[in-house]
TrEMBL record:
InterPro entries: ACOT13, HotDog_dom_sf, PAAI_dom, Thioestr_dom. Residues 48-125 form the Thioesterase domain. Coiled coil: none annotated. The keyword Hydrolase applies. The lineage of its organism: Bacteria, Pseudomonadati, Pseudomonadota, Gammaproteobacteria, Pseudomonadales. This is Thioesterase family protein. Keywords: Hydrolase. It comes from Stutzerimonas stutzeri (strain A1501) (Pseudomonas stutzeri). GO terms for molecular function: fatty acyl-CoA hydrolase activity. Belongs to the thioesterase PaaI family. It holds the Pfam family 4HBT.
Length: 142
């Protein structure tokens, strides 16, 4: 996928993704990678990565991995049917984290994905699995 197409996909991801300050750094048929530089607003009361931010990164990356297409405007919407998240280590502000997702199984309308949330040293912060439904084409949405 070209850099221009990757940026098109990144710009089309919902406002919450944008509000967090995430970046789509890799988008292909084999895997999706989303990065985030942790700011104080991403932390919980213990000054570590908030679980909701972790879950969001996992969810977005897994949803994107099952709807990849070479043409950004032909990408479908993914709806989360179920998702499991496991937390394994904290991360403080200033950490650059990334969600690395892969599609594990795919049917016509439903796909399953897994994702690891890693820090700069490849330490596992969280991991998850999800089941998603493919919906309408992005170009069909209002």
């Amino acid at each position: 996928m070209s850099e221009h197409s990757r940026l098109q996909v990144e710009a089309s991801i919902t406002g919450f993704f944008q509000d967090l300050g995430c970046r789509l750094t890799e988008y292909g048929p084999e895997r999706v990678v989303i990065e985030l530089l942790l700011q104080p607003r991403h932390l919980n009361n213990a000054s570590n990565l908030h679980g909701g931010v972790s879950a969001t990164l996992l969810d977005v990356a897994m949803g994107l991995c099952g709807i990849w297409t070479e043409q950004a405007d032909q990408r479908r919407v993914a709806t989360t049917l179920s998702m499991n998240v496991n937390f394994s280590a904290p991360a403080p502000a200033g950490s650059r984290i990334r969600a690395v997702a892969r599609c594990r199984s795919s049917g016509h309308k439903v796909f399953m994905a897994s994702c690891d949330l890693l820090d700069e040293q490849d330490r596992l912060l969280a991991f998850g699995e999800g089941v998603y439904q493919r919906g309408k084409l992005r170009s069909e949405l209002p």
